[in-house]
Design goal:
The protein is built from 13 helices and twelve strands. It is α+β, with helices and mostly antiparallel strands and 450 residues long. It has four domains: 3-51; 66-117; 143-295, Ribonuclease H-like superfamily/Ribonuclease H (Nucleotidyltransferase, domain 5); 320-380, no CATH class. The longest helix is centred in the middle third of the chain and has 21 residues, at 251-271.
């Protein structure tokens, strides 16, 4: 029973108990007196069930045929259903039923049918809930790093990339201006941070091949984790590299970019700085100390999580490119189209076809190591490939002696038996042409072989 019908039962029960007169019940039910008398009669004869609507539970006279409903729901289930993000809504499904299947059906009717069959739900697809990440509690616990491309020198110099490092807990900032966001630009900025503050626990960077990359098919088969040159440098220092999936994830450094693009550009303009070298000197001496005094904040916890910075020689061995190469049969190592002859070693002599590591520093200095030990070598000229003499034809189709004995392609002569079959085939096709074709110019036939 509906809410209104239950209300009528309550009022008429009071009439039956002599608490109300029927005329007062009609006023409470907002009915006319004559209609109230009819309702009261039905209540006395049939009880509370008599007040239920006569059409309740019965099929509507204007309802669609059950066969049509089964057909429509079958089409929806087969063509327009699926996961929450892929399935069609009732309105769109009704449009496609009309245009593709020729079934004109109201969208609200289809909605009720789909709800009854579990093909649709009233819940909307909600966006993924994101919770604001709180700052880290300790200085050096997490450092965010990113590059910002901007016209830092305006028209006075080329467009450059400012490498920014920002501590997550304190907003302490360090920046270096360069030309591009390269491996050496990132390594130089990180080394400057380490030399000043120490080695941080973790580094928050972009998901780029410079910092992190996806695994190759070969690495996936072997179950190896892909490591970039920058990732290898951080691994040697014990720094965890965390890749952000969106710019909003590392919002601290992104907001610092905006601050620098406003304040730093204007200050460089007033100083009339034209090169990145002058800009870095200004950043080191004036801009960064003032910026950190103004915008840095105290960490929640006073403990410094930076570890002791290694010595300069140790950092040189960390911040370098390392590539594995194979030793050839004549103890030569090839790297970037350069050839290095390994000299005899006192001990730990590398075997032929063994693996060595070629290490390249930022200034281009090279070292070749085998199992962690440096090898002696000297650079040699690239070997010149032997020149192949051009073959010249000799008598009877044989190769000329000067050609190194290389034989040339043999071509049969005009009277060779192999050509007889081709001649007879051409003669047969010409004899089968119609007479009208004789008036048109024809191709000259090959002369019969002697």
């Amino acid at each position: 029973m509906s809410k209104r019908e239950l209300g009528r039962v309550e009022v008429l029960a009071r009439v039956q108990g002599k608490e109300l007169r029927l005329v007062d019940a009609a006023a409470l039910l907002r009915l006319g007196y004559r209609q109230a008398k009819r309702v009261w009669k039905r209540y006395r004869e049939e009880g509370a069930s008599g007040l239920k609507h006569r059409s309740a539970g019965r099929r509507s006279n204007r309802a669609y045929a059950p066969r049509l409903r089964r057909k429509v729901l079958g089409l929806v289930r087969r063509k327009y259903s699926g996961p929450v993000g892929e399935r069609f809504g009732p309105t769109l499904a009704a449009e496609h039923l009309t245009s593709e299947d020729g079934i004109d059906l109201d969208a609200e009717t289809l909605r009720r049918w789909m709800l009854g069959e579990g093909l649709w739900s009233r819940e909307r697809r909600r966006r993924q809930h994101r919770r604001r990440r709180e700052r880290k509690e300790h200085f050096g616990e997490l450092v965010q790093m990113d590059g910002s491309f901007h016209a830092w020198l305006e028209e006075r110099g080329p467009r450059g990339c400012l490498m920014d490092l920002v501590d997550d807990a304190t907003n302490t900032t360090l920046a270096r201006l360069g030309e591009e966001e390269t491996i050496w630009a990132a390594a130089g900025a990180l080394r400057a941070w380490i030399e000043r503050y120490g080695v941080p626990l973790a580094l928050y960077v972009d998901w780029k091949n410079l910092y992190k990359r996806g695994a190759t098919p070969k690495e996936r088969l072997k179950g190896e984790e892909p490591v970039t040159q920058f990732g290898r440098m951080c691994a040697k220092l014990g720094i965890e590299v965390i890749a952000a999936s969106s710019p909003q994830a590392k919002g601290r450094v992104e907001r610092i970019h905006g601050t620098h693009q406003d304040r730093l550009v204007k200050k460089l303009r007033r100083k009339k700085i034209k090169t990145s070298g002058e800009a870095n000197a200004y950043l080191e001496a004036e801009y960064l100390p003032e910026h950190n005094r103004r915008f840095a904040r105290a960490a929640t916890q006073s403990e410094d999580y930076h570890r002791r910075a290694p010595r300069g020689e140790e950092l040189d061995r960390v911040f370098r490119l390392e590539s594995e190469r194979t030793i050839s049969e004549d103890w030569v190592v090839r790297y970037e189209n350069r050839f290095f002859q390994l000299e005899p070693q006192s001990r730990h002599y590398p075997p032929v076809r063994g693996k060595v590591v070629v290490c390249e520093g930022r200034q281009g200095d090279l070292a070749i190591e085998y199992r962690g030990r440096a090898l002696h070598w000297q650079e040699i000229q690239a070997p010149v490939p032997p020149r192949v003499a051009q073959a010249r034809p000799g008598p009877e189709g044989q190769a000329h002696p000067a050609s190194g004995g290389k034989r040339q392609k043999w071509v049969p002569s005009a009277d060779h038996p192999w050509r007889q079959a081709a001649y007879r085939a051409v003669q047969g096709r010409v004899s089968l042409r119609p007479a009208a074709a004789d008036a048109r110019p024809s191709m000259a036939l090959p002369s019969a072989p002697p």
